[in-house]
Description:
It contains five helices and seven strands; from the N terminus they run βαααβββαβαββ. The chain has 190 residues and is of the alpha+beta class. A seven-stranded mixed sheet has the order 1-2-3-4-5-7-6, with helices on both faces.
Amino acid sequence: MPIEVRPASDFADVRTLLGPKSPAANVCWCLSYRIPSKLNNELRGPARGAYVAELCRTGPPPGVLAYDGDEPVGWAAVAPRAETSFARNRKIPHVDDLPVWSLWCVRVRPGHRKKGISHALIAGAVEYARSQGAPVVEAYPLDNRDAKVDLTMAYAGLRKNFERAGFVHAADTTSVLAGHPRILMRLDLR
């Protein structure tokens, strides 16, 4: 069955991909880049999930989900850069003043990896951004040059996966994640 990618409006499915085993745990919920740093530090435990539930409920959805049949198997965070901390990030430059969308997290559930789901997520995130009028999608993947990357820190994606999706290197950054430089890659949708 082919992988289907849809906007992440079903909180139960988002929780399957991003939520902790213990509701009181302080996990990212993919909020670290989405909300201001002060709010990110204030939200603890269940309040983090409640914030994401509100995003799913009120829209626009906080990203996209990949489904294998009815089972959610992957997540990608995508939103207008202006609504994320990338709008103010000093380590990742702005190439121009276009109202770009940022794609900053790609996650595939254990047991479903190595099946092309990350590629489907990138393509689905791009199509979602395009449907919302995005002129350009940016990503900030690791330039790992085929070196092994810790799976926990591979959420930013890998350069080769974005190249495969048609993204091109637009700028170097001063951001480093898991010992690998992050680069700014863009896909022009105009």
